[in-house]
Design brief:
It is a single chain. It is built from 19 helices and 15 strands. The protein is an alpha/beta fold. The protein folds into 2 domains: 195 residues, D-Maltodextrin-Binding Protein, domain 2 (3-Layer(aba) Sandwich); 197 residues, 3-Layer(aba) Sandwich (D-Maltodextrin-Binding Protein, domain 2), CATH 3.40.190.10.
Length: 422
């Protein structure tokens, strides 16, 4: 459960329910700024599909897509500078949960985001999005962002040809992972068992918390940890960190110089067999002409079958937006069933709306929609931990695996666990 904080001066205005484009030839073109970090293969194409749809619906609106080269930390800093200068974009990309709440807590007396309750009702998302998703964009009883999708973060992707070559199945347990890893390293020439990219440290927390910690300690302890009811000195934490260091023995030696997508390239070429990453990796593989369930497969990370680690992207409307009316129109497109359909078909995620026709989705996407309905839903670390915790611990985890010294990870968790709100 995400803790809700009290913040004031909500901006709920009549313009939120005024929609549409008049279609008159003399209408002045409106400009809307959209800030995101989607530049990788598949992500940009998915975003473009929504912008194309929006142009059809609102031909007199120009959307300026302001992107920050795929680096979440740099994007957040750039956005913060613009917000502090009183020059925010109309909309910006955010993760669910505490990453979104961060913008509300920075100045509670003057909220940076507008309440979108009327727009949420008008677009039907209050009735078509599951409460688990709506709760992640709702604070103090107000919806403050429109969900674009639902991502799964406990995913193991693998190159099917590599596993056919060694005559083994992709692993579903840690024991099987080490057996597969040993077999791959014994080949001549060897194949890297697990491709990782740590050039951007956030990949470390994503790999560790919703994958390794969840696998070794279980969902009950995972949720207890992020409810602030555990301790970094618990035996479960030490065991998970030790397992993480052991897993790292099966990764590529150049991880620190690679991004997540460059790690995925190793799997795409067959230089590596597997990678752990959110399901946006599916879109990346398809952009390099890999076919789902032919060239690559996906499974829940070892030991997490039946658990769906939920994350997602959403878009709030800034209080100081120059053009809030047209910003709200762009949110209408994001919230629509058609917008959700087009975006998620290309993004690798699934629609946040439950009424989207997915009959033309491939088998992998349809299986994820079914899993989301049947699996235990567990929030990602990026949903339940504040950005400062995620960033600080991620950097330390990178140092830890490079030095093979779990004490570095323990020290970072001890120093930052107080950031987790009980």
């Amino acid at each position: 459960m995400i803790k809700r904080s009290l913040f004031l001066a909500w901006m709920v205005a009549p313009w939120l329910v005024a929609c549409g484009d008049s279609g008159t030839e003399n209408e002045t073109e409106e400009v809307v700024e959209l800030f995101s970090w989607w530049t990788s293969g598949g992500e940009r194409e998915a975003l473009d599909s929504v912008l194309d749809l929006h142009k059809q619906r609102y031909p007199h609106t120009e959307v300026l897509n302001i992107v920050q080269a795929g680096n979440v930390e740099a994007a957040r800093e750039m956005l913060q500078n613009r917000m502090d200068a009183g020059n925010p974009p109309e909309l910006f990309q955010s993760n669910y949960g505490l990453a979104l709440k961060y913008w509300l807590d920075r100045n509670p007396d003057t909220p940076a985001l507008r309440a979108l309750d009327e727009l949420a009702t008008e677009t039907g998302i209050m009735d078509t999005m599951p409460p688990e998703v709506l709760n992640m964009v709702t604070f103090d009883g107000h919806v403050v962002a429109i969900p674009a999708n639902v991502h799964r973060e406990n995913v193991l992707y693998y190159n099917k040809a590599v596993f056919d070559e060694i005559g083994m199945d992709p692993p579903t347990t840690l024991e099987e992972f080490y057996e597969v890893g040993a077999a791959l390293q014994a080949l001549d020439p060897p194949i890297t068992p697990l491709a990782v990219g740590t050039k951007e440290p956030w990949t470390l927390s994503l790999t560790f918390f919703p994958n390794v910690l969840l696998s070794t300690a279980g969902p009950d302890y995972y949720q207890k940890f992020f409810a602030g009811e555990a301790s970094p000195d618990d035996a479960e934490v030490l065991a998970a960190l030790e397992e993480f260091v052991k897993i790292w023995e099966y990764t590529n030696s150049d991880a620190v110089s690679r991004t997540w997508s460059e790690a995925a390239d190793l799997v795409a070429t067959g230089s590596a067999a597997m990678t752990i990453m959110g399901d946006w990796t599916k879109a990346y593989f398809e952009q390099v002409d890999m076919v789902p369930d032919v060239d690559f497969g996906e499974l829940p990370f070892v030991g997490t079958k039946g658990i769906y680690v939920v994350a997602g992207d959403c878009f709030p409307l800034t209080t100081d937006a120059v053009n809030p009316e047209s910003g709200a129109d762009l949110l209408r497109t994001w919230a629509s069933a058609e917008g959700q359909h087009d975006f998620n078909k290309l993004k690798g995620s699934i629609p946040a709306r439950s009424d989207v026709d997915i009959s033309d989705y491939d088998a992998q996407l349809q299986a994820k929609v079914a899993a989301f309905k049947s699996d235990a839903l567990i929030p990602s670390v990026r949903v339940v931990a504040p950005p400062a915790f995620d960033e600080n611990v991620s950097a330390a985890l990178r140092d830890m695996v490079e030095a093979a010294d779990v004490e570095i990870g323990l020290e970072a968790l001890r120093d930052n666990y107080s950031l987790i709100e009980p």
